[in-house]
Amino acid sequence: MRTERLVTVAGYIAGFGLLFLVWHLAATTLVRSTLFPPPGPVLERAWVLIEDGILQEQIVASLRRIGQGFLLGSAIGIPVGLAIGSFKPVRWMLEPWTEFFRFIPAVAMITVAVIWFGIGEESKVFLIAYTTVFVVIISTAAGVGAVGRDKIRAAQCLGATRLQVFRLVALPATVPYILTGMRLAMSNAFVTIVAAELVASNDGLGKMLWDARLFMQIEDIFVALVALGLLGFATDRTFRFLIRAFAGRFNATV
């Protein structure tokens, strides 16, 4: 097991090494423009920002908003998805809401969020929750619908009540779908927080991108992009670990 993990980590390191190598070759041989710097100057600029504490502040600000909105959206989406998947009357009532709002992207709601909540933290948390909730609802409802009827009948034959069937059969079998939906929603959260911080924010990686664009600080732009990519990768690996740890026995696909 330990050897497998070491091999996996080595593979990740090699993959990122190849990525930076391709970036370096593209910047030094194909493009050769100040608007597309090679990784060397970008990493040097990142180190300066880290020493000054600036990059950490922007990362913490963005992650705090993502975490708050993501947890709020998941806390709403999981029970609603369970209800939609379990009860037809609830499905008939709430599916139109879900299908209507999920096709309105969170980016389109930025103006509304700023009007309702101002440019403070509430608008960012609302947007992250908005972009999270519908993905989690759909994935959770799909998980409930995918529960094998034979398992439910077997539990009923053993004398299980409806509550016991839900708690001991349907809910555990839905966990992989819930975690997968949350994993997909997290990528949307990163997209949304950058867009929200571009429009109205005093800090965060989106604000860093915006300020760097205004002052043509190209290295700062790429530092923010690299930070977003690495944070997204780390977050996705965390979700894969959680799926394997808590849902692997239910044959989750990761």
Automatic annotation (TrEMBL):
Key word Zinc present: no
Keywords: Cell membrane, Membrane, Transmembrane, Transmembrane helix, Transport
Membrane topology: Multi-pass membrane protein
Organism domain of life: Bacteria
Compartments in which it is found: Cell membrane
Domain named ABC transmembrane type-1: residues: 59-243
Annotated TM spans: 7-26, 70-88, 100-119, 125-147, 168-194, 214-234
Family: Belongs to the binding-protein-dependent transport system permease family.
Name under which the protein is recorded: ABC transporter permease
Natural source organism: Roseomonas nitratireducens
